[in-house]
UniProtKB/TrEMBL annotation:
Originating gene: argB
EC number(s) given by UniProt: 2.7.2.8
SUPFAM superfamilies referenced in this protein's UniProt entry, alphabetically: Carbamate kinase-like
Pathway membership: Amino-acid biosynthesis; L-arginine biosynthesis; N(2)-acetyl-L-ornithine from L-glutamate: step 2/4
Native organism: Lactococcus protaetiae
GO cellular component, one term: cytoplasm
EC category: transferase
Protein name: Acetylglutamate kinase
Length: 283
């Protein structure tokens, strides 16, 4: 078969999937660790643009842990994580917002536009999209999400632009909170009643005994997941991801996928082929 015949065959075969996902909402959480390599980032953003171009309602929610860490370092502010969440004092809250809603958010928008698409960058503060209150005294200004107002996201989705959302929240009193991006993304996916929630990270997916390759999990149901959590097999940054997915599933989310953003075209392979790539979590 010639190259062009192969391309035509692939396009024809993808028709089933294109029809399946057209007009469906797909929320993608893009973690900061899968942003640090420019090639990986370009591949992810190209996939996201392709999804939008074929009529999928794509919503991008991003983190930026490494960018926050870099800014904190610059200002010599020490940072510590408690169960995967960053202790956030006033200065940390300010710098986290500066990094996430500033450079990270706007660079993603810039990149999507440079690649030929369109995007609108906002944070959870805009339009009171993510309402929050203090999660605990222990964590300072880390927010617990009390409500999601999805109207602004829906408005952007109805245009040619992809909403690019930085995780931050606002209290009733106007206090700004630092919100873990996995939590923000899963709650947004739940509130939009998304058909797919995809978490892009720098790990292949979920392991029953991380990092033992043999223990990689292709598919797991929510009930089994709870057992892994209580057995202490999920640690660090994986804790908020799993907690977030569990919560969103209790709210009605049907399935979520933990995907390795470092794999070229991971999103296309996941959505447009039979063979899933990462770990599929079902409700
Ligand atoms: N059971 C597990 N399976 C997979 N990863 C795990 C597990 N437990 C802990 N982790 C850690 O969670 C990390 C992913 O979370 P994180 O670094 O916060 O990603 P991101 O910045 O993309 O949100 C992995 O790189 C791994 O070190
Ligand atoms: C409360 C809390 O931990 N907030 C996170 C927000 C960014 C984030 O979640 O970024 P990743 O997705 O890259 O990890 C933080 O300060 O790092």
């Amino acid at each position: 078969m010639t190259d062009s015949q192969t391309i035509a065959k692939i396009l024809t075969e993808s028709l089933t999937y294109l029809l399946k996902y057209r007009n469906q909402t797909v929320v993608i959480k893009y973690g900061g660790n899968a942003m640090t390599n420019d090639k990986v980032k370009e591949s992810i953003l190209k996939d996201i643009l392709l999804l939008k171009t074929v009529g999928i309602k794509v919503v991008l929610v991003h983190g930026g842990g490494p960018a926050i860490a870099e800014l904190l370092d610059k200002y010599q502010v020490e940072s510590q994580f408690i169960k995967g969440l960053r202790y956030t004092d006033e200065q940390t809250a300010h710098l986290a917002l500066t990094a996430l809603a500033g450079a990270v958010n706007k660079t993603l928008v810039q990149d999507l536009i440079q690649l030929g698409g369109n995007a609108v960058g906002i944070s959870g503060i805009d339009g009171k999209m993510i309402e929050a209150q203090q999660l605990s005294d222990e964590l300072g200004y880390v927010g617990k999400i009390t409500n999601i107002n999805p109207a602004l996201i829906e408005q952007i989705v109805s245009t040619d632009a992809i909403p690019v959302i930085a995780s931050a929240g606002i209290g009733r009193d106007g206090q700004i909170y630092n919100i873990n991006a996995d939590t923000a993304a899963s709650r947004i996916a739940g509130s939009l009643k998304a058909e797919q929630f995809i978490v892009l990270s720098d790990v292949r997916g979920l392991y029953a005994d991380y990092p033992d390759e043999e223990s990689f999990i292709e598919k797991i149901a929510l009930t089994e997941l709870s057992k892994l959590v209580s057995n202490g097999k999920i640690t660090d940054g994986m804790i908020p991801k799993i907690e977030a997915i569990k919560y969103a599933m209790e709210e009605g989310l049907g399935r979520a996928v933990l995907l390795d953003g470092r794999v070229p075209n991971a999103l296309l392979l996941e959505l447009f082929t039979d063979k899933g790539q990462g770990t599929l979590i079902t409700s």
